[in-house]
Protein 1
Amino acid sequence: MTLPAHGTIAPLPVALFALLLFACTAEPTSSEGPAPPPAPADARVADLSPLPDDTWLSGDLQEQLLQLSRHMGGMGTAMLAVGQRHAQLYWAGVDENWAYAAYQLEELEEVIERALVRRPHHAEAGSPWLETAIPAMAEAIAAEDVETFLDGFAAFTVTCNACHGATGYAYIQVHPPEYRSVNVRPEAFAP
């Protein structure tokens, strides 16, 4: 068997490629006509199959949902994400990376909103943070001035600690971070 010369195309691979291309683009041939469109998401959810025997969930659907909700974690789990975002927000402002600061603030807000849905008994303490602290921090970011940002961040952090106190966790006092746990900077990375 000889290989084709450099710059020529072997006929067998070309034929296989054409066959595969045709097979991938051809309409299905069926006496029943074209395939029906996929079912909407809500219809698929309603058609739940039984769980396999080796799953950790047990009981009926209601009991399984309760088990899942317990495994999602409460405010403590959400606060781990908030703490990370809080630190990244600080460094973004110090670095004058205003787009990244705005992104971190949006993510913080989303984490808190979802946590308050899961733990509604914290809503009274968390609402001022969402209604006042988030918009004030957004204004400080929009000013694109480090001193304005740092003042806003200090007020933002005081609001965090006030919420901790209002929910019985006054012993959790957050501060601006002292070191970077994630190294995101506005300048391009060049090794």
Protein 2
Amino acid sequence: MGYYFGAPYTHGTPFRRAREENLFLDNASMHVGIRGPLYSRDDIKNDESFGFKIIHCENFKQKVLIK
């Protein structure tokens, strides 16, 4: 179990814990609006390893404005 600010459960961990408990379908979830700073350089790598599609905040803003 990874820790966030030294604790296993915080405002920053609900989706990680849900994935660890297999509550998400593989490759069927998105992480939309990622912005910095991140707690660790591994944050995005972890999301990708969990099968989350990553859409960064700036990319989301651009796509919404285009539509």
Protein 3
Amino acid sequence: KRYCSQIADWARSISTHMYWEASSSNGNGEIVLQKWQSILNHVCNKHEGHGDLFPTCQHEEIIKNVCWLKMGSKVYKELRDVITSNFLMNDIKILLVAVLHSNENAQRSQALKRDGTPRYRFSYPKAKKVEHCPKVVKKGCTYDYVMDLMEEAYDLRQEFQIYSLTRKETANVQLSSSPSHITSEQSESRGGLSTP
């Protein structure tokens, strides 16, 4: 919408925030959800009071000029409607599975023909003023992480017979490494906005 151009300034940070919350929550869906909702406070320059599991932002003090949103403004309400939509609220807790799939398949190698030469396909992009352009054909996706998850679930079920004990004992299991923190200077040199 026309009056929502301020949100575009936050798009990259929100996208980075989504990756960060999934990779830094140790598989705890409730923490992922609170971190996701914290973006609504963060864009208004409020960095605490997000929830009992994630009470404050973990970033350093923001010293550069940022185009903060005003809580209650039309722009804020539009962003809030997206962030708190049922579609996202239901799926955000299982975002980790999407991250696992992406991590496993991000570095797929190029598929080869029977004679050993690399495979390509032709793409016909409407946005570019070209007839066609070659695209690399990647090898098929793998789903090895699913078996790893199932084995882990089975092992946990054998070890912990009661679900509540399982949650308590495995709350600090690290499923993926946390992203390294970026300093304000590094963020500015990359042209990005700060993330929560």
